[in-house]
Specification:
The protein is an alpha+beta fold and 409 residues long. The protein has two domains: 2-181 and 273-391, FAD/NAD(P)-binding domain; 185-270. Helix content is 33%, strand content 28%. The protein contains eleven helices and 21 strands. Strands 1, 2, 8, 9, 10, 11, 19 and 20 form an eight-stranded mixed β-sheet that branches. The protein has a seven-stranded mixed β-sheet with strand order 6-5-14-15-16-13-17. Helix 1 packs parallel to helix 4 (106-117), helix 1 (15-26) packs parallel to helix 8 and helix 8 (302-323) runs antiparallel to helix 9. The longest helix is centred in the C-terminal third of the chain and has 35 residues, at 328-362.
């Protein structure tokens, strides 16, 4: 068995893990990041990089380079309810350098963070390294075990960070208690070709009993068809033609493209859940991002909340990790800092799920925009409120760690 010794071992190469790895390496901490896949080229749930995350990238001095990556800028967020276009968020007035949401494939974000992490000699990213267990001594987590193509790997570290998503092996092996909050819907995820003539299609469309989201990825639409929780088998039983008709019913633009869905293999079920750990840490271990709190897709805030967790963790832990003085109080400080924005964001998501999404999915008649949405459309000033909540979140984080040494070119 190969053995590695490091200061911080991060399980999971998602937004939280990759951002934390970069920040700690930049601050002079030796870091090992373990990612179970061979690359980042997968269809992720979230592709919205919000102004809060773009501001973090600016604070790292990397914004100009980041914005050279292919992306679509969304300054105003809207949709179509029934036959009525609505606009409900205007990001153009935010107090940030980027007053827009960047629609960008998540793999580009992750590759970007990995590329800049590798510029530091104390940053070590291992792909195809799947964490399977924790190493414990005297009630303290002192490392992880992983499988790799070259055989078993054991990483010994001062701190293990679980950033391995909503199905976290780390939090399961650590025995951390999960509070399941629940969600009334799931999502069917698919892609269809995009044409230049499509223009700037509304992001979301709502019709009787149906919700549909279209994310512009340049040459194709990444589409999310929202369904009642557990309704996937019922939809499949009606047949693929019936599903194609349902998509056209809510998104007529795609009428001449739904035949691109040739089989159910082209449609992936994403099970939506909202949960959070009651305690994010144990001696020698901390969970962040989806491993600490799975978020609903409502608002597309999951990536950005995970990045904020990573920044808060780096701010609190870089110095004690360098000094060798890390304590459980340091880990508890990260949870105290991030638990409040997590709870409040999930409460907003649950409110929207229970009072909007559930009613839409249960409706059988034509829909009209509810009065709060109509009010937002009539008063552009009010659109700054949801834009601030979505774009900046609750309790923004800023990069407080300093660069220990210049990176390699």
């Amino acid at each position: 068995m190969e053995q590695i010794t490091t200061t911080c071992c991060i399980a999971g190469g998602g937004p939280a893990g990759m951002m934390l790895g970069l920040l700690l390496a930049r601050a002079g901490v030796d870091v090992v990041v373990l990612e179970k896949h061979a690359d980042f080229l997968r269809d992720f749930r979230g592709d919205t990089v919000h102004p809060s995350t773009l501001e973090i990238i600016y604070e790292l001095g990397l914004l100009d380079e980041f914005l050279k990556l292919p992306h679509r800028r969304v300054e105003r967020l809207g949709g179509i309810v029934g036959d009525t276009p609505v606009q409900f968020a205007d990001f153009s007035h935010l107090p940030t350098h980027c007053k827009f949401v960047a629609l960008m494939p998540q793999w580009d974000l992750l590759n970007f963070l990995a590329e800049h992490g590798r510029r530091y000699p104390n940053y070590h990213l291992h792909m195809r390294a799947e964490v399977t267990d924790l190493v414990e001594e005297g009630g303290r987590v002192v490392g992880v075990r992983a499988t790799t193509p070259d055989g078993p790997l054991e990483v010994r570290s001062t701190l293990v960070v679980g950033a391995d998503g909503r199905g976290s092996v780390v939090r399961e092996r650590a025995g951390l208690k999960v509070e399941d909050i629940g969600a009334p819907m799931d999502v069917l995820w698919m892609r269809m070709s995009r044409r230049d003539s499509d223009g700037a299609e509304a992001l979301g469309r709502i019709a009787a009993g149906r919700m549909f989201v279209m994310i512009d990825r340049g040459d194709y639409w990444q589409c999310a068809y929202v369904i009642r929780k557990g309704a996937a088998d019922e939809i499949k039983a009606k047949g693929l033609d019936a599903f194609r008709d349902a998509v056209v019913g809510v998104a007529p633009l795609l009428r001449d493209r739904v035949q691109e869905l040739k089989s159910w293999d082209d449609i992936k079920l994403l099970t939506v859940k909202i949960d959070r750990l009651t305690q994010w840490h144990r001696p020698g271990l901390l969970c962040i991002g989806d491993a600490a709190h799975a978020m609903s897709p409502v608002g597309g805030v999951g990536i950005n909340l995970a990045v904020q967790d990573a920044v808060a963790a780096a701010n609190a832990l870089a110095a004690p990790l360098r000094a060798g003085t890390l304590s459980e109080d340091d880990l508890a400080a990260v949870q105290r800092r991030r638990a409040f924005p997590t709870r409040m964001t999930q409460r907003v998501q649950v409110f929207i799920q229970n009072n909007v999404l559930s009613r839409v999915l249960a409706s059988t008649q034509a829909l009209a925009p509810p009065w709060p949405v109509r009010l937002l459309g009539r008063c552009p000033m009010l659109q700054r409120i949801p834009a601030r909540l979505m774009g900046l979140g609750i309790r923004r984080e800023h990069v407080e760690t300093t660069e220990a040494a210049p990176p390699r070119p």
